[in-house]
Design goal:
Layout (H helix, E strand, L loop, with lengths): L10 H28 L9 H40 L5 E5 L2 E4 L4 E7 L3 E9 L5 E9 L2 E7 L12 E10 L5 E2 L2 E12 L6 E4 L2 E4 L3 E5 L1
Antiparallel strand pairs: 1-9, 1-12, 2-7, 3-6, 3-9, 4-5, 4-7, 7-8, 9-10, 10-11
Helix pairs in contact: 1-2
Length: about 220
């Protein structure tokens, strides 16, 4: 399934709105044309060329309405297909861009990617309320890696299981700030299909289907 194709689903509402606008213009044009014919001067009837041009416009607007209807049907079909495919994600392990994962049995893991070596990287972990529960500074080499937290709080006690987020503050060897991207991995627990795009619940976090990068059985 092409995950990037889900961005087209959002055009469903736009298509419906455009159809209403065109339909309103179509009705206004039809009323104007009818009124013009009813009130034309019998001694100076509507010019044939002008009348033909107006009929062409009439036909063009009608075709636009039909095209919008067809577009709406295609987008609705795409939406249905995306939702049906999304059901198959339940119970599978997915990887997606994100910073929130679950601490379970004293282990929480985040995948990260950094474009350059960072001799001093400050790693901050926060709980679901946004409060800092753990920080450390360490060197991180360029490339992809994984960071695992054992759930130990700064006071030495064990953090309860739950959702925690991570943040990297990194600088290269010359002191320039370096952006670290983070991914999370977990089992899809449920899917919310009330919006224009399916939203997966992974590790207690909400993830748009279009942000999924990997899928494992």
């Amino acid at each position: 399934m092409d995950l990037n194709g889900l961005s087209a689903i959002g055009s469903l509402g736009q298509a419906a709105q455009s159809q209403q606008t065109i339909a309103g213009n179509f009705d206004a044009f039809l009323n104007l044309l009818t009124t013009q014919l009813q009130n034309q001067n019998p001694l100076e009837p509507l010019d044939t060329n002008e009348f033909t041009a107006q009929l062409v416009q009439f036909s063009s607007v009608e075709q636009s309405i039909q095209a919008n209807k067809n577009l709406e049907q295609l987008v609705a079909l795409s939406l249905t297909t995306a939702f049906n495919n999304a059901v198959g994600y339940i119970g599978k392990t997915v990887g997606a861009a994100g910073s929130v994962t679950q601490l379970a049995n004293g282990v929480a893991t985040w995948n990260y990617s950094i474009p350059a070596d960072s001799p001093e990287t400050t790693i901050t972990i926060r709980d679901a309320a946004g409060a800092t529960v753990f920080t450390e500074t360490k060197a991180i080499g360029a490339g992809d890696g994984a960071y695992t937290w054992d759930g130990r709080l700064e006071n030495g006690t064990q953090a309860p299981d739950g959702a925690y987020s991570i943040e990297f503050a990194a600088s290269d060897t010359e002191g320039n700030a370096v952006t670290v991207t983070t991914d999370i991995e977990g089992v899809v627990e449920s899917i919310d299909m009330t919006g224009v795009e399916p939203v997966l619940t992974v590790n207690g976090s909400q993830i748009n289907l279009s942000s999924v990068k990997t899928i494992k059985s």
